[in-house]
Write a structure and sequence with these properties.
By secondary structure, the chain is an alpha/beta fold. The protein is built from seven helices and eleven strands.
């Protein structure tokens, strides 16, 4: 048995972890690095393993930093099976296709920019992957995992997908590994939600494990309580409307946007904010 880390290792994006057991190579997530422009080269670089050697990919959820390099993985030779929940399968399709469209747009922009600056010496700028690459990668999605249902990934490897309460379909993945008469359990947390969310279930408590690999985006910081944050939002909107301004709210397309719409809808219906449903 062997575990190696090929993303989100001393980083907070690009999750990609490799388990080798019972003659099989299994990835947990394959995400895109997000942040500075320097990460463009890192996304285009080597995975640290041969994509064609990967037998299975277990996807914890559909945020881009966990699924965003699946089209590139397939483009470079991955022909194994992606296993995830039904909701993650549908959301990953949308996220990967949107990412591919943005990759194509950015490549076209950089190509035009290079052509202007270099005159006759035009260099073709290739996207990290295309919409066609993303569509092709969808064929790798195979079995659908259900919450709390132990499944055999392959002989010697069993997985249980546990509700992580992060976005629709999100999971922690509990692996039971057996090789050469030895057994070990490993828990991959994925991104964890918190209790008391309005549109998601609370994260479930996973079983005990010999090894835990945990996402630590926020380190040892404590999240602010939700209700005071909602009141601050309402106050900011009230103040902006009183001054005759417009409110622009940048937010994640998945999960945060839906929560924001929920709270705005509730505020309008209760009369807390002006507007109509």
């Amino acid at each position: 048995m062997k575990t190696s880390f090929h993303g989100a290792d001393q980083e907070v994006t690009g999750s990609c972890h490799l388990i080798e057991c019972a003659g099989k190579r299994i990835l947990i997530d394959c995400g895109l690095y997000q942040g500075s422009h320097e990460l463009v080269e890192e996304n285009a670089g080597s995975f640290g393993f041969e994509p064609a050697d990967i037998d299975y990919l277990l996807l914890s959820h559909a945020h881009l930093d966990h699924c965003g390099r699946i089209p590139l993985l397939a483009k470079r030779g991955f022909s194994g099976e992606v296993i995830t929940t039904a909701a993650s399968r549908e959301l990953a399709r949308l996220v990967m296709l949107d990412s591919a469209h943005l990759q194509e747009e950015e490549a076209a922009y950089q190509g035009r920019k290079a052509a202007r600056s270099k005159g006759k010496h035009k260099k073709r700028i290739e996207p990290l992957y295309t919409v066609l690459d993303a569509l092709n990668s969808l064929g790798a999605f195979g079995r659908t995992a259900s919450y709390d249902q132990r499944m055999e990934v392959c002989p010697g490897v069993h997985a249980t997908f546990i509700d992580a309460g992060h976005i629709l379909g999100s999971v922690s993945i509990h692996l039971e590994l057996e090789e050469g008469g030895k057994k070990r359990s490993v828990l991959f947390s994925g991104d964890l939600g918190y209790s008391g969310r309005v549109i998601l279930r609370n994260p479930a408590t996973p079983p005990a494990a010999d090894v835990v690999v945990m996402e630590t985006t926020y380190g040892d910081r404590l999240h602010k309580q939700l209700q005071p944050s909602i009141e601050e939002l309402y106050e900011a909107i009230d103040d902006t409307f009183r001054r005759g301004g417009n409110v622009v709210i940048p937010t994640f397309a998945l999960e945060r946007a839906q929560e924001m719409l929920y709270f705005l809808h509730e505020a309008v219906n209760s009369g807390r904010l002006p507007g109509s449903t």
